[in-house]
Amino acid sequence: MSVDRAYHHGDLRAALIGASFDLLAEGGLQRFSVAAVARRLGVSSAAPYRHFADRDHLLSAISATAAHDLRAAISAAADAAGPDATARLAATAGAYVRYVVRTGAGFPVIYAAELYELADDARREQTRALMTTLFELAAATGPPTYHEALLLVEATVAVAHGYASLFADGFFARNASTVDDIAARATEAARTLITPPPRRRRTTD
Fold it and tell me: Which domains does the chain have, with CATH numbers?
């Protein structure tokens, strides 16, 4: 039996998505291609096109899967952090680091610019749900306006993605830091960012 035939009845689609995550974790979005995914699976270069019209359609399926899985990881981390709103939002930074280091599918993949014009309701549903979860966690910390809650989401994600990117680039290698070490640092950095500074007491002359 050929390798191609081993992936019949829809199994190839799932295998393509799984192999795509492996490639993203190894080389990032710049080196991702349908041909590379096919080579990883040992199938013909034409086989992926039975399920995906082109690279963007495969990437869209990856985006939907990543958004769904990242949201689940973030929700689990927030729940494990307990009832404190600041701790819950900060925990998402650590969850993001762990997920991105493992899969390579951070926000640059989930919200890849080349997907903006691609109509895919499944992907849009998952990416919308991810942002809703992040926004609700940020809003629970008490920012006074909708805009400030969005900025808090943006800042938390920026901190988390920064730590994940530095880890992937080997920045922490000289200290032999593990993924869990960096996730913990990202969480503490996010906590510092989220916690408002104490108000200065007014003094009178």
Answer: 1-52 (1.10.10.60), 63-194 (1.10.357.10)
